[in-house]
Amino acid sequence: MTSHQEKSYKAGETRVKTQEKTGEAMGMMREMTEAAKDKTQGAGRSTQEKAHETAQSAKDETSQGAQTTQQKAQNSKDKTGSYVW
């Protein structure tokens, strides 16, 4: 092989190795991106679930409070014999 042929061969080898490494790096980046996307979606779902649970809990507590107030008002009414001054 001539010097020119050797340089051309080595340049070709280098190019192939570079392409392989670039492909590997791109594959890893895709995997990392997908993992981050999945994690973000999971966190979003978790946040929505927690918000729903909190809202439901507040609704339940408000309902209980209203029932207790209504019951106390009824008890007071019963005790006073429904007399209002």
Q: How is this structure best summarized?
A:
The protein is 92% helix and 0% strand. The protein has 85 residues and is an all-alpha fold.
Large-scale geometry: rod-shaped
Find the structural class using helix and strand composition. Answer: mainly alpha
Helix content: over 70%
- Figure out the total of helices: 1
Mean pLDDT: 86
Strand content: under 5%
- Rg: 36 Å
Q: How many DSSP-defined strands?
A: 0
Q: Strand-and-helix sequence, N→C?
A: H
Structure explained in plain terms:
The protein has 85 residues and is an all-alpha fold. The chain has a domain at 1-38. The protein is built from one helix and no strands. The protein has one helix spanning 3-80. The chain is rod-shaped. 0% of the residues are buried. Residues 1-23, 31-40, 47-62, 75-85 have a biased composition (Basic and acidic residues). Residues 63-74 have a biased composition (Polar residues).
Name the features:
single chain; mainly alpha
Topology:
Layout: H1 3-80
